[in-house]
Amino acid sequence: MHHYVTPANVEQRVLRRLGKRHAIGRFDASRTALVIIDMQNYYVAEGFPSGSAQARGIVPNINRMSSAIRAAGAKVIWVLTGSSKAMEFWPNHHIHNLSPENAARRIASLAEGGEGHRIYPELEVHPTDILTSKVMYSAMLPGPSSNLLDTLAEHGIDTLLIAGTKTNVCCESTARDAYMLDFRVAMLSDCTATSSDEEHAATLNTFQLFFGDVMNFDDVAARLEPPARPT
Length: 231
Prior knowledge:
Elements: H1 8-18, E1 27-28, E2 32-37, H2 41-44, H3 53-57, H4 59-72, E3 75-81, H5 86-89, H6 91-96, H7 100-109, E4 130-134, H8 148-154, E5 159-165, H9 167-180, E6 184-193, H10 197-210, E7 213-215, H11 217-221, E8 224-225
Parallel strand pairs: 1-8, 2-3, 2-5, 3-4, 5-6, 6-7
């Protein structure tokens, strides 16, 4: 797991811009979702070409965070990359940005229903959780890539907590697009992972300087507000 601490110069710049450390003071559980990106065997499990020890390292933290989110009454949403529409909706990526061998392997390994597509088995998925899919890096692109935007609208969600892998690819793409669509967004430093500490830190530094918040489990737990009970 990456051990991220916000650098002092980044914190000072956030304070100058915002006047406080975090933009999000409280999380209204009825309008908040934990969005967990790509925690599938293909990206996490040993024996898969893109399996990652760093991603395996955040599994306990994601389980802990998702449990706290459910207990507060907020939504947990799992976003899974699938390849069945990859050549229909994202051909340039597979033809021009990957070798033929890597493109074929990716499409085969992420086929819906296959072992690579499944959520890593040590992650705790509950019956109340929502599962959705995406084709491209960002889960927030409207149209063929994903129906996450429609799912969030259906449940009245305006605040997102981003977890999963990779920090600087699908997690960052989703988080930035969500922010540009006027969602309140926090990337979770202890529930995201990528290939190196340097890439992880660079993404989180940039995100809190220009986009949304960066928080850890304790930051979120201190701000979670369960839905008000009817009187």
